[in-house]
Amino acid sequence: MTSASAASPARPAARVVALGLILPLAAGASSVFAFAPFYAWPVEILALAVLFAVWSAAGSARQAWLSGYAFGLGCFLAGVSWIFVSLYEFGAMPAILAAIATFAFCAYLALFPAFAGWIAARLGAASPARRIALAAPSFVALEWLRGTLFTGFPWLGVGTSQAPASPLAGFAPWLGAYGVSLAVCAAASLLAALALARGRARVRFPLAIALAVLFLAGGLARLPEWTGPAGAPVRIALLQGNVAQEIKWLEERRTRTLLEYRRMILAAPARVVIVPETALPAFLDQLPPDYMQGILAQARSSGKDILLGTVERIVRDGSYDYYNSLVRITGDPRESYRKRHLVPFGEFVPPGFAWALHILHIPMSDFSRGTSTQAPLEAGGVRFGVAICYEDMFGEELIDQLPAAQVLVNVSDDTWFGHSLEPEQHLQASQMRALETGRWMVRATNTGVTAAVDERGRVVSRLPGFTQGTLLADVVPRNGMTPYARTGNLPTLAIVAAGLFVLRRRRVGD
């Protein structure tokens, strides 16, 4: 009798751990399969449905917080652990410190779904149905905050998992990636409510109808053509030099890299040639004059425009400012787009973190920011809206170059993350940007993924990763504005705020 009584309290505790922590942790880890290269978009909806069901049954807001934290930890440890590669292999950080730093970063990111759970539980009080309804706006509000706070880290945004094939991706040109996130979370809430309404047909039927209507609305949202062709297709050559990061800046490799890129530029049978981010191992003003003159002479004779990813040095007040730039070197005068959204620690050191430079040995980590408003680059008679590397994670910034930009271009160097999920996940972000804007997105990267994406977010052509090659794509410039390009994230944020306000309930206990 005594032993049975002693054991009984342990059973509920074990059940709380299993359902409240282990289940969300597994669901979060599984959500990585919703993203590229797997593209199993239903997994994200199922994973969130599990989380929201757990939130509805949580005994307190604290338990909901812990469940959300477990979900986030599983998601980010599985999805962005490639950060370890950049810290250890290329940042020269000791393995143990790189592992600790990677875990700490993922632990920080997990705070956002944790606080989403806390908000849903606090505002929903003791009502499971209200908690499930609040889960969607709470989760999206915190996802937006994650993409904004401390310069933002919107990687693995829920909405991006639906690009390009999910019916819910149809909301992208209307409401952007966060609007798609809201649709995904709404679908997950309905699915969770369906699962918890077992045996109650009168409840389940309207939930099933609402879920079907949501997917139908997403499919119908794809039908309008917000943009149209602005001219004949233009042949673009996207270069992929495949120069390993560990040898890129070595003096003994420098000449070979310059010669290989010159050969690829001169051989490319295209109107526009795009060279990846910081492709050449020298500042633009340090390139040998005969090297540049030879390229420019051939380009002018063949009517070819060249967009070069490079580092510009600008003298100001007796010192240099460095810019991560895409430069039209065939222009007179040259035109540049200078990266404006820099990566903390990779491209600039946040205030108070100068000590990190003694641990990390990442070259060129002191870039200056480009101005917040920059005109598209014109090449081959086409206006290109530019995003350098990580910038194409921020749809609200890329639309600043619309409606002038007719094609979007991303130049990247994802070599920093080796043979990981990062390059494919980055490609999917570009697919979402194409959906949001109704424009082609072309990507030139050092080791992959070099690809051409049409206005529907579909990968038309691509090069294999970690190979040297030139991708030729006939790209259609487009004019016009999607609703999202006109309004940005404001409508989605207004819907989220309204949802939280309407569904809130005065707390009656914790």
Q: Can you count the helices?
A: 17
Question: What overall form do the CA principal axes indicate?
Answer: globular
What is the helix fraction of residues, given as a range? 40-55%
Terminal CA distance reads: 33 Å
Class based on secondary structure composition and strand pairing: alpha/beta
Quick rundown:
By secondary structure, this protein is an alpha/beta fold. It is 47% helix and 15% strand.
3D structure, described in words:
The protein is of the alpha/beta class and 510 residues long. Helices cover 47% and strands 15% of the residues. The chain has 17 helices and 14 strands. Strands 6-5-4-3-2-13 form a six-stranded mixed sheet, with helices on one face. Strands 7-8-9-10-11-12 form a six-stranded mixed sheet, covered by helices on one side.
Fold blueprint:
Layout: H1 2-7, H2 10-30, H3 42-57, H4 61-79, H5 83-90, H6 95-109, H7 111-124, H8 128-146, H9 172-196, H10 201-221, E1 227-229, E2 234-240, H11 245-248, H12 251-267, E3 272-275, H13 289-302, E4 305-316, E5 319-328, E6 335-338, E7 377-379, E8 382-388, H14 395-398, E9 407-412, H15 422-437, E10 441-445, E11 451-453, E12 459-462, E13 469-475, E14 478-480, H16 483-487, H17 490-503
Parallel strand pairs: 2-3, 3-4, 8-9, 9-10
Antiparallel strand pairs: 1-14, 2-13, 4-5, 5-6, 7-8, 10-11, 11-12
